[in-house]
Structure formats: C-alpha cells, structure tokens
Design brief:
Length: 188
C-alpha cells in the first residue's frame, strides 16, 4: 500500500473510532463481564429452548431485567431483550419511533440494513468481529428503518432501548410503501 493509501486508511479508522457510540461500547463491555454472563445464562437457555420447541418460529426473545446489569448500565438504557434469530431467516423493515436501539451480537452473524435517504445500507454484524468490514454491534437512531438477514447459524444478540419495555413502539411496513405502516407496543 502506498503512503497515500496508508494515510487514507488511517483517517478512515480514526473517523470510525471518533464516531463510535460510547454507550454501545459500554454495553458491549458489560456483556463480557463474568457476573453479568452468569446472570444471563439461564435467560439465554430459556430463549434457546423456546426457539427449538414446535412450532418452529423464525425467532425467540425474552425481556432482560435491567438489574442483571447492575449499576454499570448506562443511564439512558431503559429496557433490554435477548433475541435468537434462526439461521438463514430474513426480517422485514421496522423502526422504533420512540427509541434509540443498540444491538450487540453474542453469537453468529447477520447483515443489518438501515435506510439512509432512499437506499438500504448494509452493515455486517459478526459476534466474532473477524468478518471483513464487520462489527460486533450496531447503533440504530430513533426512527431509523432497519431490516435483518441472518447468516448460516442462529444469531444471538442483545437489543438495548432508551424507553421502558412497556413503552417501546414497533412500526412495520404494510407494503413496500414507507408511508403505509402499522404501529404496536412491542411488549404488549
């Protein structure tokens, strides 16, 4: 690589670091804490059992009590879910008009696409962090449309939100027209 190429790569890396979501970094570190892992273990086991039980659904999830994370949880986080999304599944466009979503991968990989202007922008999320251009997490601002394609193995992740579980709104498309949607409380 030429010096000019190295300089450009260095600037891109610095830009990525400077634009990182600090709360997301804190959440990813919190999920690596051994005491948090111990608390999460039975929750993960229940969600894995639910995914394996008939009828075979494309996903399984459960809310996670915030006290599992202790005092280290960032103040802006008001709810959390663990999700296991089935290998090869695709999930249509949705958004949360009242919450900033931060998702951290625990196992597997997925492509999250966010709608930027009129174009779907893909972002590879890989729990190992080893994939080309991949990350272990994604930050999805309030009201941002997103959809997900799951890789070749089940995708296990934690989604953190800035509103309490009983207030989180999920908005989905009724058709391909972004102006025709339906809203529901996520945890009703």
């Amino acid at each position: 690589m030429t010096r000019l190429g190295q300089a450009r790569a260095w600037r891109r890396n610095i830009g990525a670091i400077m634009n990182k979501d600090i709360v997301l970094i804190e959440l990813a570190a919190l999920l690596k804490d051994s005491s948090v892992k111990t608390e999460l273990s039975p929750i993960l086991a229940r969600v894995e059992q639910a995914l394996a039980a008939p009828p075979l659904e494309p996903q399984s999830w459960e809310p996670v009590p915030l006290d599992v994370f202790g005092a280290a949880l960032p103040d802006s986080i008001k709810s959390c879910w663990v999700f296991i999304l089935r290998a090869g599944a695709r999930f249509g466009a949705e958004r949360h008009p009242n919450s900033h979503q931060r998702t951290v991968a625990l196992r597997g990989s997925a492509v999250f696409e966010t709608l930027e202007d009129t174009t779907w922008a893909p972002r590879q999320i890989d729990a190992s962090g080893n994939g080309e251009g991949s990350s272990q997490s994604i930050s999805i601002p309030i009201g941002t449309w997103h959809r997900i394609r799951i890789g070749p193995e089940n995708f296990v992740s934690f989604s953190f939100h800035t509103v309490p579980a009983h207030e989180l709104i999920e908005e989905t498309l009724v058709s391909d027209d972004l102006s025709v949607t339906q809203k529901r409380l996520y945890h009703a």
